[in-house]
Design brief:
This protein is of the alpha/beta class. The chain is built from 11 helices and 16 strands. The longest helix has 16 residues.
């Protein structure tokens, strides 16, 4: 990459800035679902028509998915007795068991209005599934009574220590959000607004609103990681910003490889081949997007960012205030530069990673359109050289 030119912009001073607390640290140890990273296959990995071979292929994908650094995977509603033979049912049992051996839970993607999906959910919850995800829903598409029924379903049939119910509203600004948070039916109410954010002001407003509505109720944040179709050139910056946030994050299959999220409900064999080729090309290659996302998830776990306090810096230098978001995430400084000029970082902060590859002599600058993570002095953790990109 070309060398960046240092401008006269003043570097941030973490000891002198004014910051506003958005989220308090959750008392340790938090429940697993408050801090989990969910890997989402779309269309769902399994459904009522899945064959033993298809289930086995899904099981084989669990190991590389685990190595990425996620704690849960979302599949569809698999076959149940009467829909498939014993070989298929045994294969799904093995998939759930393999996921648990890899320290991952399996969530089921179900339609809240489909009786067949509910029957599958009941059966596989008793076999160890870790919860239900209703996917994206329109405002008031699901009644209060139906949420109560689904919550009761988890209580009656769940065998996981804490099975969860999650969903995502297509409009996060309506009164339905407040109602759902107050009723406490959903463990995750996933927020997708960062996928559409286009400037620093909008990003800051989304973060402030999301944590202000959840904090007083003790509800965790839940974030959808953006993809290239939604976020365009800001994808890398918004992805690394999202992965630094407290709460749960949902990472759709392929985004870790720089591929767009799938929107078609139909399986795409070509996409699987494309993903396999991209993984083979990127895995182990310094600076690849796969290794960058993997490093971010490793730092997220090591620094407990999902349960850490979060503050937004409000005293940025005037020349970058309109284009930069700076967050204090635990003992990390996260700088998202959505402008056209590089932003200097504090000289005493230790660079960890960036959404854009930078040279060793350029790590004190956050490139245009990028997010960089820095470890602040006194963080008390050794720097992981594998996180360098």
């Amino acid at each position: 990459m070309g060398r960046m030119t240092r401008r006269a912009t003043r570097a941030l001073d973490p000891e002198a800035v004014t910051s506003r607390l958005l989220h308090r640290a959750h008392p340790a140890p938090p429940a697993w679902w408050r801090t989990t990273t969910v890997y989402v296959d779309e269309p769902p990995l399994l459904d009522a028509t899945s064959t033993p071979a298809q289930v086995a292929a899904g099981t084989q994908r669990l190991t590389p998915t685990s190595r990425l650094g996620v704690q849960a995977v979302r599949i569809g509603c698999p076959p149940i007795p009467g829909e498939a033979d014993e070989r298929t049912l045994a294969a799904v049992d093995e998939l759930i068991a393999r996921a648990r051996r890899l320290s991952m839970r399996v969530l089921l993607r179900m339609s809240p209005h489909e009786p067949r999906d509910e029957a599958s959910a009941r059966y596989w919850l008793t076999r160890g599934a870790g919860g239900l995800d209703l996917g994206p829903l329109h405002d008031r598409e699901v009644s209060h009574q139906r949420y109560r029924e689904l919550h009761a379903l988890l209580v009656a049939y769940g065998r996981d220590d804490e099975p969860i119910l999650s969903s995502r509203l297509t409009d996060q600004r309506g009164p339905a959000v407040t109602e759902l948070l107050h009723e406490d039916w959903l463990h995750h109410l996933v927020d997708a607004r960062l996928c559409r954010a286009r400037d620093a002001t909008e990003v800051a407003a989304v973060l402030s609103d999301a944590y202000a509505s959840r904090g007083p109720l003790g509800a965790p944040g839940g974030w959808l990681v953006p993809d290239v179709v939604e976020a365009g050139e800001a994808t890398g910056a918004l992805t690394l910003l999202t992965l630094a946030l407290p709460g749960a994050v949902y990472l759709r299959q392929g985004l870790e490889l720089g591929m767009p999220a799938t929107i078609s409900p139909l399986p795409d064999a070509g996409r699987g081949e494309e993903a396999a080729a991209a993984l083979a090309e990127q895995r182990g290659r310094q600076g690849s997007w796969y290794e960058t996302v993997r490093a971010a998830l490793r730092v997220r776990t090591g620094h407990r960012l999902a349960a850490a306090p979060l503050a937004i810096v409000e005293s940025l230098p005037a020349e970058i205030a309109a284009t930069t978001v700076a967050l204090l995430a635990g003992r990390l400084l996260v700088i998202a530069n959505l402008g056209a000029q590089p932003v200097p970082a504090p000289s005493e902060a230790r660079w960890l990673l960036s959404s854009t590859p930078v040279g060793a002599d350029e790590q004190v600058l956050v490139p245009p359109g990028a997010t960089s993570w820095f470890e602040l002095p006194g963080a008390g953790r050794r720097h992981d050289p594998r996180a360098r990109h």
